[in-house]
Every structure is written in C-alpha cells, then in structure tokens.
Amino acid sequence: EEEREGQIARGEMPRYGGQHAHLTEEQRQQFEAEGRKPSIRFRVPKDKTYTFNDMVKGEISFDSNNIGDWVIVKKDGVPTYNFAVAVD
C-alpha cells in the first residue's frame, strides 16, 4: 500500500513494482515457510511502446512502464476476472 500511495502522490498510475519478481530459491522457501502464497503474474516488458489501431478511436499507443506485471491467478488459485473472461 505504501508503494501505491507514493505512486499516486507522484501522479503515476499505481502498479506492481516487481519487488518479488526475481526471488532466490532461499527467499521462495522462506516465504513458503511463512505461509505466504504466490500469485501468478503476466510479466510486461519494460520500456516498450505498444501501438494498435482501434476501429473507433484510431491509433492508440501506450507505454509498458505504465502497466506493471498484472496478476492472472490470485494467491488463492482463482484466475482473475479480466484474465478468465478473455480466455473464456
């Protein structure tokens, strides 16, 4: 929450900062021993601009740094709605 509040205060879009994206095996074991459950995230490449043609609005571009790695499966094992509905 602290990271999120800081991003909002700086006028940035809130997003996951990737602090647990590259855990060592020891760190993973420590989290597991603490009873922490992992979520599964879609890793978004950094420093990319994505552009596509929207049939209503025309050309749309966005910076990948504004998205962050988004959750596709929550720590309870349930897929997020946005992911599940697209797959369905």
Automatic annotation (TrEMBL):
Pfam families linked to this entry: tRNA-synt_1c
Ranges of biased composition (kind: Basic and acidic residues): 22-37
SUPFAM superfamilies registered for this protein in UniProt: Nucleotidylyl transferase
Single GO MF annotation: glutamate-tRNA ligase activity
Alphabetized InterPro entries for the sequence: Glu/Gln-tRNA-synth_Ib_cat-dom, GluQ/Sye, Rossmann-like_a/b/a_fold
Domain Glutamyl/glutaminyl-tRNA synthetase class Ib catalytic: 1-88
GO annotation, cellular component aspect: cytosol
UniProt keyword list: Aminoacyl-tRNA synthetase, ATP-binding, Ligase, Nucleotide-binding
Region of interest (Disordered), residue spans: 18-37
GO biological process, one term: glutamyl-tRNA aminoacylation
Highest taxon, organism lineage: Bacteria
Keyword presence, Nucleotide-binding: yes
Signal peptide: none
Protein name: Glutamate--tRNA ligase
Organism: Lentilactobacillus parakefiri
Record lineage: Bacteria, Bacillati, Bacillota, Bacilli, Lactobacillales
